[in-house]
Structure formats: C-alpha cells, structure tokens
Design brief:
mainly beta, binds 2-acetamido-2-deoxy-beta-D-glucopyranose
Length: about 300
C-alpha cells in the first residue's frame, strides 16, 4: 500500500507546485510601482525600464538600463541604444538583442559594392554589457571570407577571427561550420565594446558565381544552423540575435553590499559577475520573482 500511496502524493505535490509557480509567476511585479512593464509583447523588468524613474540610474545619472519603446515601424519595438531588444532575462542576467550582419559583396571583377556597406558600423558601447561566451559564436559565412572581431577584455584590446574558404558549392556541408563555406569560433569570456568586420582575401573573384558576398557576425549558437543556401540568402538577414550578459555597477558583492546604491531586494542574494566588474541579484531558494525590486522575491511555498 505505502509505496503506491507515496507515489500518488509525490505526483500531486509536483502538479500543485508547478501550477502554483505558473499561476504566481505572472502575478509577480517585474517593474517598479506605477511603471510600464511592457513594450508590445516584450516584458521590460527592472532594472531595465522605459521611462525616467523606471530604470536604474548608474553613477552620475547614466542611463545604461534605459530601454526606448518606439512605434516607428507601426508596431512597438524596444531598443537599447540602436539595437532592437528581443528578450530580457532576470534569472540569467541576460538580454537578447539584434546585432548587425556585416555583409561584404563584390562585383564579378572584384570591386567592392558600396551598396553592401551603406551604414555606419554600429559597435556595442554600453558598459553594462558583455558578450555571453556560453551562448554565442563568432561566425563567417562565405567561400573567400573572414570574420574579424575587435573588442576589449579586462580593459585591454582583444582580437579574434575565423576564416572560411571553399572552391565550389558542392564542398559545402549543411549543418557543418568547419571552415568550408562557414567557420565559427568561441567567444572569450568578458568581451565588451565589440565590433565585427567582414573581409575577403581575393574579393570573391574565384567564387563569385555562387558566392558574391561574405558575411561576418556574432550569433546565438542555438539559433544558427549553417545551410549552403546562406551563401547567397544571408544578405537578406540584416541583423541576427546575440545574447549579452549584464551586471549592476562596477564593484563586487563584498564591496557594494553595505552601500546605499546596493539594489538586491529582500530574500535575495548577491552574485559576483564571472568576468570583470559588477554583480547580479538572485532570489534565495524557495523564492521567485524579480530580485532587483525591494520586495520582488516572493515565497513559492504558501501562496494560496
Ligand atoms: C503604432 O502604430 C500603428 C500604425 O501607425 C497604430 O495603429 C498603433 O495604434 C500604434 N501603437 C501605439 C501603441 O502607439
Ligand atoms: C565592377 O565595378 C568596377 C568599378 O565600378 C567596374 O569598372 C567594372 O566594370 C565592374 N565589373 C563588372 C563585371 O560589372
Ligand atoms: C542544404 O539545405 C538547403 C536548404 O536549406 C538545400 O537547398 C541545399 O540543397 C542543401 N545542401 C546540401 C549540400 O545538402
Ligand atoms: C534569416 O532570415 C530568414 C527569414 O526571415 C529566417 O527564416 C532565418 O532563420 C534567418 N537566419 C538566421 C540565421 O537567423
Ligand atoms: C556590512 O553590514 C553588516 C551588517 O549590517 C556587517 O555585519 C558587516 O561587517 C558589514 N560589512 C562591511 C564590509 O562593512
């Protein structure tokens, strides 16, 4: 008797607690009181915010956590600086934004098409952001192409690159990014203030018929699977998703915990950022919600 009964009870506990979590999650406040917490479908949790007083101000009133919600295209779009925001995660301390695909095209005799580089290069200059080294790769697609990444790591210049070549489209294998038509390389932890550039060694003259353009970009790894079709079609993807880590301030937990600008709320703990400076907040075990709000972490055991 006993065993079966315990099993049944355990199952019920599982069902009830997942129902509770689902039900209470949506009730948890994610923004400061009287602050808008959405831009279209996207939730904008504190420390991010849409209007003054609703996002966290840095030292000397800086506005790194400000997100602008505009409707220029007819539907609401959230932006941090120039970049479109597609997701903000409080639990992981991450934000997904759309960064530029650097497109490098030539005519059949190897002259760069000026059309392919119409815009100024947008670099990531917000100091709260580092490129997540666990979620992204640096990628180049093309048969005479390389990707060149410039940035800073521990306040020192840092460079990385990968090169991709091929002689014919039939050498290229779908799903394989191993320097034939596509190359990818790991992102080092703690990279900030990055720009990516696309280059070519022979200006695509030997491969032009099937690959007139090369591409260079950072991309969220789980949203990229190489296809030979990308040799030509990737010029239509002007931007691609990238995951950034964000942190609060420039000091570690020990230094900041007793200061007036320390923001982790009740029932939360402070976590040092893995690279460089700053900290994050997490709800203690048994609590859920937004640890950056004073009373954001709420118990999940007895919330009926
Ligand atoms: C955004 O623009 C569209 C089209 O111009 C308009 O119908 C809609 O009401 C606007 N939405 C907001 C929130 O302003
Ligand atoms: C490529 O562009 C250069 C410079 O505009 C031009 O002189 C050349 O004729 C072009 N080649 C072709 C095949 O269009
Ligand atoms: C790779 O996939 C694309 C579709 O995404 C297809 O058109 C192409 O033929 C495939 N190439 C190879 C070499 O299998
Ligand atoms: C490029 O854009 C197409 C069409 O919007 C989309 O289906 C595809 O997933 C994009 N590719 C990448 C790598 O994001
Ligand atoms: C911070 O405050 C706590 C109690 O308020 C105290 O025990 C601790 O020594 C303080 N730490 C520092 C570094 O001042």
């Amino acid at each position: 008797m006993g065993f079966r009964r315990i099993l049944v009870q355990l199952t019920w506990v599982g069902v009830i607690s997942s129902v509770m979590v689902a039900a209470t999650d949506t009730q948890f406040p994610s923004a400061l009181p009287n602050c808008p917490d959405r831009c279209g479908d996207l939730q904008i949790p504190y420390p991010f915010g849409l209007t003054e007083g609703c996002y966290l101000n840095g030292n000397n009133g800086s506005t790194e956590f400000s997100v602008v919600c505009d409707n220029l295209s007819g539907k609401p779009e959230a932006k941090t600086g120039d970049f479109l925001v597609t997701d903000i995660s409080i639990q992981e301390g991450q934000i997904e934004i759309m960064m530029d695909n650097e497109i490098d095209c030539y005519n059949s005799t190897g002259t760069p098409l000026s059309l392919s580089k119409p815009r100024r290069k947008r670099s990531l200059t917000n100091p709260i952001f580092t490129i997540s080294h666990t979620k992204n790769k640096l990628v180049s697609v093309g048969c005479d192409s390389y990707a060149y990444l410039k940035g800073f790591r521990n306040d020192k210049r840092f460079y990385s690159f990968c090169r991709s070549i091929c002689d014919s489209k039939s050498d290229v294998v779908n799903g394989s990014c191993s320097r034939v038509g596509c190359c990818q390389t790991d992102i080092r932890g703690g990279l900030k203030y990055i720009t990516v550039e696309a280059y070519s060694l022979y200006n695509h003259v030997y491969v032009w018929e099937f690959n007139p353009c090369g591409y260079a970009f950072i991309i969220r790894e789980d949203k990229f699977s190489f296809s030979s079709a990308y040799l030509t079609t990737l010029r239509n993807n002007k931007t691609l998703p990238v995951v950034l880590d964000w942190t609060i301030g420039s000091e570690k937990c020990d230094l900041t915990r007793n200061k007036s600008n320390y923001i982790c709320g009740e029932n939360s703990r402070c976590v040092d950022s893995m690279y460089g400076s700053g900290y994050r907040c997490e709800c203690k075990n048994g609590y859920r919600g937004n640890p950056y709000l004073d009373h954001g972490c709420q118990g999940i055991q007895f919330t009926y």
